[in-house]
Amino acid sequence: MQPSESAPDAYREIRELARTVARERYAPKAAAWDAARTRFPKQERAYLGELGFLGIALPERYGGSGSPLIEALVVIEELAKECRPAAFQAFEANTGPAQVVNLLGTEQQRERYLPSIVKGERTMAVAISEPDAGSAATDMTTRAKLSANGTYTLNGTKRWISNGGEAEIYLVYTRLSDEPGSKGIGALIVEADRPGVSFGAQERLMGFRGIPSADVIFDDVEVPEENLLIGAGGFRRLFSAFSIERLGNSTMSLAIGQAALDRTIEYVQQRMQFGKPLIEFQSVQMTLADMVMDVEAARQLLYRAARNAGTGLPNPLEVSLAKTTANEMAKRVTDLAMQLHGGNGYTEEYGIERLHRDSHGWALAGGTPTMQRIRIVSELLGRGFDQRR
Known about the structure:
By secondary structure, the protein is α+β, with helices and mostly antiparallel strands. The chain has helices at residues 12-36, 42-51, 69-82, 84-95, 97-104, 107-119, 235-270, 282-309, 316-341, 352-364, 369-381, and strands at residues 124-127, 143-146, 151-162, 169-175, 185-191, 197-199, 213-224, 228-230, 272-273, 276-277. Helix 1 (12-36) packs across helix 3 (69-82), helix 3 (69-82) packs antiparallel against helix 4 and helix 7 packs antiparallel against helix 8 (282-309). The longest helix is centred in the middle third of the chain and has 36 residues, at 235-270. It starts with 11 loop residues before the first helix and ends in an 8-residue tail after the last helix.
């Protein structure tokens, strides 16, 4: 089942290109990379840059295409159906911290960082969570102090950093003043090769294999004032821009669900039991119908948010609806796919277990479904809810 009819006609050509690259270049390698926890090769990142996949939603003056966000999501989806580490490169560049720099950074910062990211020469990771600050991000203790000579001294540890130890640049959320809660938080751009930057051991995660995850440690790291992206009190602006990353996250979940559905449609028509194909059993038909409805519901919510965003920021309510639905869908659809594949679904051969493992990772990343549900109600009612009381 191909989703191209659900996307605007203008994106069919780039969808076909991304689909071809995913199937011919990455699908044959994806399972082996996953099994060996192989990092996505840097030369492959450069190849995606050559194709233009890393600058679709970034401005032309920095080497990008300046296209609407939905075009980048189409490419991310097609790559992610076959190889999530490949899709992650397009995800980080178009919907991740590079996009935050594009939207909130100075012209000097854009010129310094975006062209090399678009080319695939460098990549940028976002560093928000800490050992004691996950969903409660405002509990972060990482701190940067500005000295008289115009240099910030950064100290702290960030945890669950996707591409930690691999990315050349980090967008670090940090305390910049003694104001409590979100009032003291801003963000610095920190290059990985600055003295005092180090990395913890690579996490051995259930999924996300090929996408490194490690602590990022800052020990008296000196960062020039020109690397300040957002000052103290800019936490809300940072998280408004972060909503774009959540659309990228939703797309990864959509791709996982679609891939599981596509493989299941093929399998139940070929697999014989009791003398007939599985698809002839009514219980299989009911399950397959549920899978189709779940995938298409997630797709429509995601596309609505992306279309309405255009080249700007998406609506926070639409983002949270899309992310929660897509995250929960991917977990549920991959589980149903495993059931319809029977014992074969539990093997590595059919790739269903890999999709299921990754589905849980994307549900945790970028704000869990539980936290997104709180955001849904908060945006719906136009009020905040203090989780500390």
